[in-house]
Amino acid sequence: MAEKSGNEKGPQLALIFALPEEARGLFKDGDWQRVASSASIATYLGSVDGVDTVLVVSGMGRANAEAATREVIERYQPEAIISLGFAGGLTTGGSAGDLVVAETLMPIEGTRLTGEPIASSIILVQTSRHALDGRSIPSRAGLCLTTSHIAANPKDKALLGEA
Which of 5, 14, 90, 93 could form a disulfide with 81 if both were Cys (CB 3.0 to 4.6 A apart)? Predict the structure, then answer.
């Protein structure tokens, strides 16, 4: 599996994580080969359930996620891109292991909104929800935040939950 050039086929799927800890389960269960990429991101090639995949660790924050996504699109032209990461604990009602399909993404710094909320495609949200129906993974659609800092204590999480 390689970068696409001409008629070559690259990875079908791109997974973008902010932190290596968020990708730990995939690293542990797969055979990932680190490949050259820009200095600010770590890029690996492997597969998930037999699907050729590029896995990227971008670093925290919107700017890093955007730069990593651009690089993945330019180098690999994957058929699908999924941004994954740790989430939760900001409001009641969720449990560890729940999957949240982002209906809206809000960029936050500290406890302040730093840009316009980004609405997800209704079709993508519906398709994701349909794909998850009947699976053993608890899931729901909801609001997600992106920040360049980890909310590590209950006070910070409560403030973000109110933002």
Answer: 14
